[in-house]
């Protein structure tokens, strides 16, 4: 271990006394800001404060003793210092920019700053445990710039400048470049009724469009910069150009819906108000929150605020009826203004609720395609299947709203949802748990259906141990694991399995390592080290994961044998429900940190003996005072 000593230790010692007295956490923070790094060595702090390295080190040592700053000794490197908690730095808002990474850390952001940032940046993470002391990490991604609700690049850059402490030329240039990309292609309706793709230059039409579009996407060129679009390929054209980095503006003319009068009768909670305001600003987005967090109610408030004809798409008829009831409960809408469009009922009203199934069918297409909806709301949007996506992508609407407990679709691609609906809004689950609106369970049992006919049949035909194994290895569990990891992407997770084949298959599907009894000891030790590494590395590189870090491990029984992974915050028990009760609660215990913030999800195949085991285990845990919740996963 090397200390950060010596380089300028010979400075005038009279500096030292003043520096030690002077160095407040605030000044340390200013030094970090100037360095554009979340950590700093004593030499760097000394340079920024204009004092000697030795005195800076002493002053930092004093801050460490007071508990405001932490230090990390990195082998063969100088010691680095970093604030223990961004939130403990000051009671006022603080914005630190890392322009190269296009990241912004805001400590105690005001509502204004959060609202502004949400227009052009994505909330990646929050740190700290108390709501009032949280640090917020935002990242500006290209799709955030593309979807930013501004009239022009100047207005967007103006918004950027209004929250950042100073100007960042490169960052602004990048933002302008991304903005430009999003305004190079446009679709419009020709006076004769057909759809035209227009490029900003001949070169774009010749190179970009030619390279990325298929022959059947365009019918014929109209000019050097315009082409006649095959009307069944509108969505495909939008998708292909989006993937090429050129999102298309859609200015097609469609029949305009009538205004709708709906008064909300329920008072929104603060966070719901923020969701709705953010949505109105952006005109599109996905409300992402845990089950029961009030997405439907926020959706109804959005319908009321938009006040235009609304199409609500839901996965099942039952949900269509439920939506109708919720609309009546939370708003003063006239029941005659709500139409149901599914199965035998085919009503189009100011607020129409239809199933995805109908929306994806060719013969109902014109009903949806021929008008411009004020708002389309995609409920449970992660369940939307690919054909429905391509169909609804062509639906024209002024506003698109998705509701989801996870932004990841069943095809495993969140890009799809972001492209077709909009950016996630309100993904900060922990604050909902903290505010007590939604109770975070300690253990949640999720009953997973069979999704593959073959697996279900095999199960039905088997017996004894084989039957138990097949229930344990239900392939639908893989999607469920993916979903849970995505919903908690900032948490370190362990996935426990009983069977080696299953472990290997899950690890393969997720692209993460699998540790079993067959894994050589040194490899196992190395993987555990990388899983634990983040906490330490987090302080030396500002929390961004290095290539070496592991966030997810699939572990077979060996994981149960007293290994110590204190930073695991999430456990998914994919199989092993036939095991002893002791083993079950041990698995739960493994991830329960002293703070009690770990979550355990137990997956049980619906209609199998796993269900019974899970319930028995649940009663056992319940008696021990553990909060347990049961959830049925939709088919
Ligand atoms: N602002 C509010 N005031 C009072 N009750 C509310 C409010 N928002 C939501 N609720 C209630 O909380 C419960 C959950 O709300 P809601 O159905 O909107 O959640 P959700 O996130 O859509 O849930 P799910 O994902 O299960 O569909 C409902 O009983 C609803 O009436």
Task: Catalogue the ligands.
Answer: adenosine-5'-triphosphate
**What is the name of the CATH superfamily of the largest domain?**
P-loop containing nucleotide triphosphate hydrolases
Largest sheet: 9 strands, mixed
> Low-confidence stretches at least 5 residues in length (pLDDT < 50)?
1-20, 86-90, 408-412, 536-545, 588-596
Domain Helicase C-terminal: 477-635
EC number: 5.6.2.4
Protein name: Putative DNA 3'-5' helicase Rad25
Pfam families: ERCC3_RAD25_C (PF16203), ResIII (PF04851)
Question: Could you characterize what this model shows?
Answer:
The protein is α/β, with parallel strands linked by helices. It has 5 domains: 13-84, Winged helix-like DNA-binding domain superfamily/Winged helix DNA-binding domain (Arc Repressor Mutant, subunit A, Orthogonal Bundle); 94-181, no CATH class; 185-253, no CATH class; 270-430, Rossmann fold (3-Layer(aba) Sandwich), CATH 3.40.50.300; 443-632, P-loop containing nucleotide triphosphate hydrolases (Rossmann fold, 3-Layer(aba) Sandwich), CATH 3.40.50. It is 41% helix and 20% strand. The chain is built from 25 helices and 28 strands. Strands 13, 14, 15, 16, 17, 18, 19, 20 and 21 form a 9-stranded mixed β-sheet that branches. Strands 24-25-23-26-27-22-28 form a 7-stranded parallel β-sheet, sandwiched between helices. Helix 3 (42-49) packs across helix 4. Adenosine-5'-triphosphate is lined by residues 266-269, 272, 289, 291-297, 405. It holds the Pfam family ResIII. Residues 276-425 form the Helicase ATP-binding domain. Residues 477-635 form the Helicase C-terminal domain. It is an enzyme of class 5 (isomerase). This is Putative DNA 3'-5' helicase Rad25.
């Amino acid at each position: 271990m090397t200390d950060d000593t010596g380089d300028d230790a010979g400075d005038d010692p009279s500096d030292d006394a003043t520096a030690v007295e002077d160095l407040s956490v605030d000044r340390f923070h200013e030094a970090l800001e100037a360095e554009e790094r979340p950590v700093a060595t004593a030499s760097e702090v000394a340079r920024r404060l204009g004092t000697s390295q030795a005195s800076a080190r002493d002053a930092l040592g004093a801050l460490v003793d007071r508990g405001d700053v932490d230090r990390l000794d990195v082998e063969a490197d100088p010691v680095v210092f970093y604030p223990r908690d961004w939130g403990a730095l000051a009671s006022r808002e603080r914005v630190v920019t890392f322009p190269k990474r296009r990241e912004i850390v805001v400590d105690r952001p005001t509502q204004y700053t959060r609202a502004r940032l949400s227009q052009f940046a994505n909330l990646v993470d929050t740190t700290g445990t108390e709501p009032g002391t949280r640090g917020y990490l935002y990242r500006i991604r290209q799709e955030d710039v593309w979807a930013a609700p501004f009239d022009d690049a100047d207005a967007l850059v103006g918004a950027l400048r209004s929250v950042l402490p100073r100007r960042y030329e490169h960052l602004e240039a990048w933002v302008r470049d991304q903005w430009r990309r999003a305004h190079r292609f446009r679709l419009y309706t020709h006076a004769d009724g057909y759809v035209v793709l227009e490029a900003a230059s001949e070169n774009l039409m010749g190179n970009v469009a030619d390279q990325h579009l298929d022959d059947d996407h365009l019918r014929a060129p109209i000019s050097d910069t315009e082409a006649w679009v095959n009307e069944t390929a509108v969505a495909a054209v939008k998708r292909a150009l989006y993937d090429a980095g050129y999102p298309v503006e859609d200015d097609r003319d469609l029949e305009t819906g009538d205004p709708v009068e709906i008064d909300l009768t329920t008072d929104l909670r603060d966070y719901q108000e923020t969701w709705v305001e953010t949505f109105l600003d952006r005109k599109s987005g996905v409300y992402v929150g845990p089950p029961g967090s009030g997405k439907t109610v926020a959706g109804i408030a959005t319908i009321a605020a938009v006040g235009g004809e609304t199409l609500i798409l839901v996965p099942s008829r039952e949900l269509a009826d439920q939506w109708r009831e919720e609309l009546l409960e939370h708003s003063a809408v006239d029941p005659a203004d709500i139409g149901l469009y599914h199965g035998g009922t085919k009503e189009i009203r100011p607020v129409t609720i239809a199933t995805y199934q109908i929306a994806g069918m060719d013969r109902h297409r014109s009903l949806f395609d021929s008008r411009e909806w004020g708002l389309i709301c995609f409920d449970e949007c992660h369940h939307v299947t690919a054909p429905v996506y391509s169909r609804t992508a062509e639906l024209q609407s002024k506003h698109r709203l998705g509701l989801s407990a996870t932004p990841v679709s069943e095809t495993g691609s969140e890009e799809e949802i972001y492209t077709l609906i909009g950016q996630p809004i309100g993904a900060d689950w922990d604050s909902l748990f903290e505010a007590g609106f939604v109770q975070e369970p300690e253990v949640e049992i999720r009953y997973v259906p069979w999704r593959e006919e073959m697996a279900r049949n095999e199960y039905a035909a088997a017996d004894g141990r084989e039957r138990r194994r097949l229930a344990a290895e239900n392939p639908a569990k893989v999607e469920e694991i993916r979903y849970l990891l995505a919903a908690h992407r900032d948490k370190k997770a362990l996935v426990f399995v009983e069977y080696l084949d299953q472990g290997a298959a899950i690890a393969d599907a997720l692209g993460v390592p699998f540790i079993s009894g067959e894994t050589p000891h040194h490899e196992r030790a190395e993987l555990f080290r990388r899983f634990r590494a983040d906490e330490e590395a987090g302080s030396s590189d500002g929390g961004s994961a290095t290539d070496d870090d592991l966030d997810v491990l699939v572990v077979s029984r060996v994981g149960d044998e007293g290994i110590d992974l204190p930073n695991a915050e999430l456990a998914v028990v994919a199989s092993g429900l036939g095991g002893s009760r002791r083993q079950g609660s041990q698995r739960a215990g493994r991830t329960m940190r002293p703070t009690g913030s770990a979550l355990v999800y137990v997956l049980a195949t619906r209609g199998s003996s796993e269900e019974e085991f899970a319930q028995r285990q649940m009663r056992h845990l319940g008696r021990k005072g553990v909060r347990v919740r049961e959830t049925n996963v939709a088919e």
